[in-house]
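Q: Given only this backbone (174 positions), what sequence would you predict?
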């Protein structure tokens, strides 16, 4: 019953934010579903990145290509040889994967994704009893839209928040 209430509140907040946001933001969101944007994404955006990772990992699906080999700033700035295995033979239209799950799969393969799911399952179990489930899942859900571990501005605050919450649970001082 509480879950439905939270979902309804979240839906109302999202719709309100969309309606009250500036026209430029609304246009940006609605353009995501236009044919022109989808075509652009297939050529040099997230759809291309997804296809490229699947193509590269066809020979490395279990263990991936290794840490820092694809999809991050390090791989892009060091001209990682993994990019040469890509759909376009080394031509990189997108340096970052813009998707934490995709980056984990590219770098650590199926085993890395399974371990990441285990981490999330542990965090869900640990924080669910303290009504902190929604903020934790909100943070990790960002991984669908951005590489949350690549940008320190995001990852630092997320892990700091988890640390503070964890220490407050074991201490009466918070």
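A: Predicted residues:
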């Amino acid at each position: 019953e509480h879950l439905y209430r939270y979902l309804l509140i979240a839906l109302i907040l999202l719709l309100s934010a969309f309606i009250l946001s500036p026209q430029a933001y609304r246009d940006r969101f609605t353009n995501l579903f236009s044919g022109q944007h989808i075509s652009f994404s297939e050529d040099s955006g997230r759809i291309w990145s997804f296809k490229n990772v699947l193509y590269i990992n066809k020979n490395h699906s279990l263990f991936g290509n290794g840490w820092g080999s694809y999809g991050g700033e390090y791989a892009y700035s060091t001209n990682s040889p993994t990019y040469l295995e890509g759909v376009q033979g080394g031509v990189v239209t997108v340096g970052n994967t813009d998707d934490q799950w995709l980056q984990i799969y590219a770098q650590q393969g199926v085993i890395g994704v399974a371990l990441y799911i285990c981490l999330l399952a542990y965090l869900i179990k640990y924080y669910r009893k303290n009504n902190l489930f929604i903020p934790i899942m909100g943070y990790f859900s960002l991984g669908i839209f951005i590489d949350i571990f690549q940008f320190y501005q995001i990852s630092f605050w997320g892990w700091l928040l988890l640390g503070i919450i964890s220490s407050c649970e074991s201490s009466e001082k918070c």
